[in-house]
Inverse folding.
């Protein structure tokens, strides 16, 4: 295992789940127990409507190349950083919520959309707000 | 503005202190347990969006109808002051934001903006569309 790979694993978000080759959930980390714990043994897509079209291309690429894939995606009102790591024990999918849309009012929605746009423009320096961190236990 | 909702039973009735004193049949599941509470306490961030219209209805003693965005929903609300000093609220759901994917978000947000009063939506429309363009190009 390369140092770069080890470094990537160690910096990966704590919230993750592991899939088998058929996208069946083998394991969820403690951070996902509350929301995804019941999904263990089930195919991921069965419980996440319209998620497949968003997540699957990265899963396919990681499996095909054998290399970790990083991506920023939008799903279920949240901008998320994905780190997909293929391994002998399955495909580990680490998830970090970067920005969560606040739909309270048109004003809050506008501001959070602008935060999403800013985070996409420069994900590395995007400010991780407390709401996004607190929602790590929400849907992946 | 043409009055289009609120011909039947009120959704919710408020007293002069915005306390819920009566709930219509259709709203029982959501508002029934809230009878006796001030409505703003149960819906964070809603007061500045709705109260100005309610105050206007009370002051003018005339029905006020408006379309508002709150908590991902767009609704037409009609506030009707009655002879007892209470305010009857009639509510019609018009649209709901779908934030599941960027495509559904963009589509339903556009629908929502079209439904809102020009004055309300005008302040946000350009910023929302600008942000969406960046987002759709960046994911």
């Amino acid at each position: 295992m390369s140092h770069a790979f080890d470094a990537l694993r160690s910096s990966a978000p704590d919230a993750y789940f592991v899939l088998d080759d058929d996208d069946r959930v083998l394991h969820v980390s403690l951070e996902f127990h509350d929301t995804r714990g019941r999904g263990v043994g089930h195919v991921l897509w069965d419980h996440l409507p319209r998620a497949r079209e968003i997540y699957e291309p990265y899963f396919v690429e990681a499996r095909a190349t054998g290399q970790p894939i990083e991506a920023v995606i939008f799903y279920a009102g949240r901008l998320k950083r994905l780190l997909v790591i293929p391994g002998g024990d399955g495909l580990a999918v680490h998830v970090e919520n970067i920005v969560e849309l606040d739909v309270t009012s048109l004003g809050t929605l506008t501001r959070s959309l602008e935060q999403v746009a800013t985070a996409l423009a420069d994900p590395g320096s995007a400010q991780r707000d407390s709401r996004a961190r607190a929602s790590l236990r929400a849907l992946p | 503005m043409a009055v289009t909702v609120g011909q039947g039973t009120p959704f919710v009735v408020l007293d002069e202190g915005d306390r819920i004193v009566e709930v219509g049949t259709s709203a029982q599941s959501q508002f029934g347990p809230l009878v006796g509470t001030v409505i703003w306490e149960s819906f964070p961030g809603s007061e500045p969006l709705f109260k100005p219209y309610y105050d206007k209805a009370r002051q003018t003693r005339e029905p006020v109808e408006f379309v508002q965005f709150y908590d991902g929903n767009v609704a037409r609300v009609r506030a009707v002051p009655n002879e007892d000093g209470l305010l009857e609220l009639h509510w019609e759901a018009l649209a709901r934001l779908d934030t599941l994917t960027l495509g559904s978000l963009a589509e339903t947000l556009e629908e929502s903006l079209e439904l809102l009063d020009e004055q309300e939506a005008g302040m946000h429309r350009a910023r929302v569309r600008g942000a969406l363009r960046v987002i759709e190009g960046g994911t």
Q: What stands out?
A: Chain B touches chain A at residues 44-46, 48-49, 69-72, 97, 99-102, 104-105, 109, 116, 120-121, 124, 127-128, 130-132, 134-135, 138-139 (CB under 8 Å). DSSP finds five helices and five strands in chain B. The longest strand of chain B covers residues 87-96.
